[in-house]
Amino acid sequence: MDKELNVARVLKQLVYILEENDFVLYYDKRFESLKPQIDDEHDYLHHESYDGPYSPMTYLRFRDSESKVDYHLDYRDVFTHTLHYSKYLYPMPQNPFSHKMETYLDPYKVYSETEAKELAEEIFNELVLKNNQDFAPNDNRPTKHRKFITLTKEPLTRETLAERIYKELEPHYGPVLLDEPFYAGVKPLDETKCTISITPDLRIKVSVTSEAYPRHEHIMRCGVRIQYCEYDENTQELVEYVGVKYSTDKTIESPLVLNATIQELLERIKMVKD
Known about the structure:
Elements: H1 2-20, E1 24-28, E2 46-49, E3 52-56, E4 59-63, E5 69-76, E6 82-89, E7 99-100, H2 113-129, E8 146-149, H3 158-173, E9 182-183, E10 193-198, E11 204-216, E12 218-221, E13 224-227, E14 230-232, E15 237-239, E16 241-252, H4 258-273
Antiparallel strand pairs: 1-4, 1-8, 2-3, 4-5, 5-6, 6-7, 9-10, 10-11, 11-16, 12-13, 14-15
């Protein structure tokens, strides 16, 4: 029990770090008693078990904010006495392979809160830098029994999400209003604009548009040149140089990736324009 307590103390600090970086914890909803829990009275991560309602919890299941990468982390009290991890593209296989963590957690050491935080930071950094594992043929990747949970934050609201969006964007683009386009490009006279909006399910929609006029617009397809022209009503002729509007968008969950998403969409438009 002492070893499990020591591990659970570090995992509690890891939960704070994960949720601060918008990672999302989950558990198997078929076993509600195994739901991870945190409170001010206990300095460790706990759940309900046959040992009682505050049994130390020595494993975590979580994904990144955009559901791209899935993680398992657990303590093995056999031979290695240390942490093991699994890291795959989301979602994780039902029976994933695991690897030993390089960061060592000493199960016999009673970590102070400061020491537990420092070790949790090391664990987090190592996990993020690890490469994704490869799937095996015919891997089963179920998700229907997953239930996502937040332990260290208040439930997300439109107001709190908007505040985080403003805070994240201001250092890069100055004051920004939701649903109001702002200039996202850096070149003079660049007409590229970005609009940020919050969807009904509290996700973030990033839209980027760019206009160019006049432009000689054409494509090649199967060796055939296709030219886009505007029809001039006065001369009743096609005009080669027309205005062109480029637009793209992406919906994300975390404000932390807002600027990176905007830059990704700008590059997407730039690639098409060039």
